[in-house]
Automatic annotation (TrEMBL), chain A:
Name of the protein in its database record: Cytochrome c oxidase subunit 2
Family: Belongs to the cytochrome c oxidase subunit 2 family.
Cytochrome c domain mapped to chain residues: 268-357
All residue ranges annotated as the Cytochrome oxidase subunit II copper A binding domain in the record: 146-257
Gene3D superfamilies attached to this UniProt entry: 1.10.287.90, Cupredoxins - blue copper proteins (2.60.40.420)
GO MF entries: copper ion binding; cytochrome-c oxidase activity; heme binding; oxidoreductase activity
Domain Cytochrome oxidase subunit II transmembrane region profile: residue ranges: 22-119
Segments crossing the lipid bilayer: 48-70, 91-115
TrEMBL record, chain B:
Cited InterPro entries: Cyt_c_oxase-like_su1_dom, Cyt_c_oxase-like_su1_sf, Cyt_C_Oxase_1, Cyt_c_Oxase_su1_BS, Cyt_c_oxidase_su1_bac
Protein name: Cytochrome c oxidase subunit 1
The species this protein was found in: Salicibibacter halophilus
Name of the gene encoding the protein in the UniProt record: ctaD
Annotated keywords: Cell membrane, Copper, Electron transport, Heme, Iron, Membrane, Metal-binding, Oxidoreductase, Respiratory chain, Translocase, Transmembrane, Transmembrane helix, Transport
PANTHER family: CYTOCHROME C OXIDASE SUBUNIT 1
Length: 370, 623
């Protein structure tokens, strides 16, 4: 087979790769990397793919020659020559793969350190100041590297908790400044989860009793989809979250807003909703601005959410269904159903939840939320 | 009323199969049991592929989905692939080395019945509160009592019992291959399938022991409230993953090496050439077996063990590609210059080569630890290991099935139906799994029971499910083929219907219970081919025709297994609301098992002899 022909065999594969590069939903697919880490991963994936394509082409070419050329002809019952092997050839296909693997070994090692070095530094500093395994948040803040912005991520069945260094908490949506390396400190409350934002970088597991780190950076402001990648129970598939990257000023403004004291809702309906929120016992699990229990997802900025419970489109109807019977929508969810709640009470609660906003409209528009 | 005569006759056939210690019959038992589990696990896969045919389908719930994927993986690896490998190993290994049976026929039978009773114990979990639901890897804490269902108790004890069966069978194969080779069958003349079974059996001994330890720890956690894997109580979650993968990684090679062996038998037979680079093939198998124990951590690249450990294991993983590559090119050059007959078996064996390469290259890609932070736990990994397990092991098993079928059952399978089945399966397989590489890169995690609309995952999931239907159609064609051929095919009466090369083709078809009336003298690699070229086409015997010593059948292996089954169920029933106390089950099971073991120890069973005249008349009748 000459070079031109083997190129022709190779061409469709290349075309396929070009096609794939634009594949999938923006903000989810890893084939359209949107941060330095995912870009590095994507580049090296392509490198390995090129090297491996070479192997595939060689094997396929030999294979097709063999099955076309060496068929037994009708009536030809002679035995072919019984070759034992060929030392030169055998050495060749031992040495060449070693060489190809060496090409991949270099980025494998450098990359492993590129992906983990920052998080490791933080872990070391923590150990120096606090000893192993005992994380005290206040000391945490003071002693961290100034450059590293650390958000604590806790995986729960089946939702995500994000604790910010400034002392507030969000759930299922995590807000970060764009163009900045953010370190996520990964922990788990119940079973193993795995924190993954495909468009921004690699996943690292959240393991009970273990603290892991991963850094991510988004090139541009925007909403990036995140997923739980480790089987964690019946609703594992629905344990999605969003990573929302904002311009620096927007992020600073939002951050300030999050730290402010709770304001009384302006709307009367929402005020009534706040009362219902307490009367119905929602507050026993859900905190708003640090008021209430942290057992369930915090609702401080619920009105800004892009989804309900991480996966349902945010609208009144869905919210109503969700509060009525969360288990029907998300099997294994810990939130109790409220079948007996009056419609008016529910309306009020929904109005109250909807009023819980921390993002200004302009930022929302920039980010293309709602 | 059935007449008494038929009644007793029927009973004696059944009794014969329940008590048999003949390796050829045990092979058929393994084949049937393995095939049933294979179909069952395949149907489960079809069910959850239907759930994934479109976004937000409501065909099955998340809980059911988790039970189905867990059972699919567990059954396929432990109860389908393993017994099917053992079926061919039991059948071919003694014949290929010129032996009359395996070294310990009683243990061989025990191995089968333990596997089956463990498998049934696992399967009845559906009727007692649900199947295991924590994935076939049973990661804790999801598999702990606090978070996992009762099904995981069945997983733990079922696999423990069936694992004992695998372990004793592995030991049996090692002893058989080392000790029972015919004169002249030196280690470097062993057929490659025997070599792979030898290495596989060694891997079984070294890998199933940590599994047994791990399962015992998990059992203590779940049934007796120990805390090995419970964080906050002094336990360690990651410990389970280490123990599991120290077993789990070699397990892949336990299954794929014999598939390599089958391919190395089928390709030379139908290319009419000896295996290219036999010595390097043997050493490649040895090296792969050795390395398979050094790479378990590559299943845990995202667990956070640090960049140094990840790098070391990444490089170790890559090195496995070298001996595997040697094998690939040796297979290609076995066919090169040959005269290939494209029988169904050869279709499967030949197509195995490029397919396995596709699985191998993604394996190298996955070895790049930092990039694996992207691939891990996504459909990319699902695609990769199905290219290894289906594209490697299953294609190998089908090749072996069509190849050895005439020797096992006395007639060939229909070739036309065979080739239809091949194309259905092969196209279906690539449709199902190739596309899953891309799904994974597009952000689809594995083990998700649904995916949301508008994430760009719809079309490819649809195609993947269609592929699964095609694969099922192929299996239906196979079943039709088996029935059709049994009714219509001509009986094979020649010793060697394929013009093959190794010693199993030197015996009569059907094979007499003693395999070889006289042990053959082996003068070469490919002894049957050698005699065809250099001799009169018959193997030269090394002993005069004389009476033959055979082992007696025994019901004790079955009783031991039933005892363990009952006792195992007893341990599980501590957490079931039954009206019979668990201690009753444990006592009854224990008495059966230990009683049968005592009976075996006290019994003086010297086997029986087939006298010279019977052997002579049987030989005459068959030739």
């Amino acid at each position: 087979m000459n070079a031109r022909k083997s190129f022709l065999r190779f061409a469709p594969l290349m075309a396929l790769m070009l096609l794939l590069a634009g594949c999938g939903e923006q903000g989810l697919t890893a084939l359209d990397p949107m941060g330095p880490q995912s870009q590095w991963i994507f580049d090296n994936m392509l490198l390995s793919l090129y090297v491996m394509a070479l192997v595939i082409v060689v094997v396929f070419v030999i294979f097709f020659i063999v099955i076309v050329k060496f068929r037994q002809k009708d009536g030809d019952n002679e035995y072919p020559e019984q070759t034992h092997g060929n030392t030169k050839l055998e050495v060749a296909w031992t040495v060449i793969p070693i060489f190809l693997l060496a090409i991949l070994a270099v980025p494998t090692i450098t990359g492993q350190f590129y992906l983990s070095v920052d998080a490791e530094d933080i872990a070391e500093e923590e150990e120096e100041t606090e000893g192993i395994g005992d994380v005290d948040e206040e000391v945490d803040e003071e002693d961290l590297d100034e450059d590293a912005y650390v958000i604590e991520v806790t995986g729960h069945q089946f939702w995500w908790e994000f604790d910010y260094p400034e002392g507030f908490t969000t759930a299922n949506d995590v807000y970060v400044p764009a163009e900045e390396e953010v370190v996520f400190q990964l922990e788990a409350e119940d079973v193993i989860h795995s924190f993954w934002v495909p468009a921004l970088g690699g996943k690292v597991d959240n393991i009970p009793g273990v603290t892991n780190h991963v850094w991510l950076e988004a090139d541009d402001p925007g909403v990036y989809m995140g997923k739980c990648a480790e089987l964690c129970g019946p609703s594992h598939a629905l344990m999605d979250f969003k990573l929302i990257a904002m311009e620096d000023e927007d992020y600073a403004a939002w951050n300030e807003e999050m730290q402010e004291e709770e304001e009384e809702p302006e709307d009367t309906m929402a005020q009534q909703g706040r009362e219902e929120f307490e009367d119905q016992g929602c507050i026993a699990c859900h905190a708003v601005e640090g008021e209430g229990s942290a057992q369930g997802p915090t609702l401080t900025n619920f009105g800004d959410r892009t989804t309900i419970a991480g996966f349902l489109e945010y609208n009144e109807e869905n919210l109503r269904d969700w509060i009525r019977d969360p288990g029907a929508l998300k099997q294994g969810a810990n939130m109790p159903a409220a079948p007996g709640m009056e419609d008016e009470e529910l309306d009020a609660i929904i109005a109250y939840l909807d009023s819980l906003e921390k993002l200004d409209d302009e930022t929302k528009e920039d980010l293309d939320i709602q | 009323m059935v007449s008494e005569a038929t009644n007793t006759r029927k009973k004696s056939v059944l009794w014969d199969w329940l008590t048999t210690v003949d390796h050829k019959k045990i092979a058929i038992l393994y084949l049937i049991a393995g095939a049933l589990f294979f179909v069952k696990a395949g149907l489960m896969a079809v069910l959850f592929r239907i759930q994934l045919i479109a976004p937000e389908m409501e065909f099955i719930s998340g809980q059911t989905f988790n039970e189905l994927v867990t059972m699919h993986g567990t059954i396929m690896l432990f109860l389908a692939a393993t017994p099917l490998i053992f079926a061919f190993a039991n059948f071919a290994v003694p014949l290929q080395i010129g032996a009359r049976d395996v070294a310990f026929p009683f243990v061989n039978s025990l191995g089968f019945w333990l596997f089956l009773s463990g498998g049934i114990l696992l399967s009845i979990s559906w009727f007692f509160g649900g199947a295991p639901d924590a994935g076939w890897t049973s990661y804790v804490p999801l598999a702990s009592r606090e978070f996992g269902g009762i099904g995981i108790d069945f997983y733990v004890l079922g696999l423990q019992i069936s694992g004992f069966g695998t372990l004793v069978s592995g030991i049996n194969f090692i002893v058989t291959i080392i000790n029972m080779r015919a004169p002249g069958m030196t280690m470097m003349r062993l057929p490659l399938f025997v070599w792979t079974m030898l290495i596989t059996s060694m891997l079984i001994v070294f890998a199933f022991t940590p599994l047994a330890a791990g399962l015992a720890l998990l059992m203590l956690d779940r049934i007796f409230d120990a805390q090995f894997f419970i964080p906050g109580e002094g336990g360690n979650v990651v410990l389970w993953q280490h123990i599991f993968w120290i077993f789990g990684h070699p397990e892949v090679y336990i299954l794929v090496l014999p598939a390599f062996g089958i391919i190395s038998e089928v390709i030379p037979a139908f290319s009419k050439k000896r295996l290219f680079g036999y010595t390097s093939m043997v050493f490649a198998v040895l090296i792969i077996g050795f390395l398979s124990f050094m790479v378990w951590l590559h299943h845990m690249f995202t667990v956070g063990v640090g960049p140094i450990a990840n790098s070391v294991f990444a490089i170790a993983t890559m090195t496995i590609a070298v001996p595997t590559g040697i094998k690939i090119f040796n297979w290609l050059f076995t066919m090169w210059g040959g005269k290939i007959r494209f029988t169904t078996a050869m279709h499967f064996a030949a197509s195995f080569v490029p397919t396995f390469v596709l699985g191998g290259v993604t394996g190298v890609m996955l070895a790049m630890a930092p990039v694996t932070h992207l691939y891990h736990d996504t459909y990319f990994v699902v695609a990769h290991f199905h290219y290894i397990i289906v594209g490697g092991i299953v294609l190998g098993l089908f090749a072996g099935f069509f190849y050895w079928y005439p020797k096992m059952f006395g007639h060939k399978l229909n070739e036309t139906l065979g080739i239809i089945m091949f194309w259905l399966f092969y196209i279906g397989f690539h449709l199902t799994f190739f596309i899953q590489h891309i799904l994974g890169l597009m952000g689809m995690p594995r083990r998700v029971y649904t995916f949301l609309e508008g994430q760009g995952l719809d079309t490819m999931n649809f195609i993947s499910t269609i592929g699964a239907f095609l694969m099922s159609a192929a299996i239906i064609v196979l079943v039709v083929n088996i029935v059709y051929s049994a009714l219509n095919s001509e009986r094979v009466t020649v010793k060697d219907p394929w013009d093959a090369r190794t010693l199993e083709w030197a015996t009569h078809t059907p094979i007499p219970e003693y395999n070889f009336a006289q042990t053959p003298q082996v003068r070469s690699l490919d002894p049957v081919f050698y005699e065809k070229i250099h001799g009169n086409g018959e193997m030269k015997p090394v002993e005069p025709l004389d009476e033959i010593h055979m082992p007696n059948g025994s019901i004790l292996p079955l009783i031991i297994s039933i005892g363990l089954f009952i006792a195992g169920f007893g341990f599980i029933s501590f957490h079931l609301d039954l009206f019979i106390s668990p201690y009753v089950f444990i006592a009854v099971g224990g008495i059966l098992t230990f009683g049968a073991m005592a009976a075996r120890s006290l019994q003086n069973d010297h086997g029986y002899h087939i006298d010279k005249e019977t052997v002579e008349s049987m030989e005459k009748e068959l030739s």
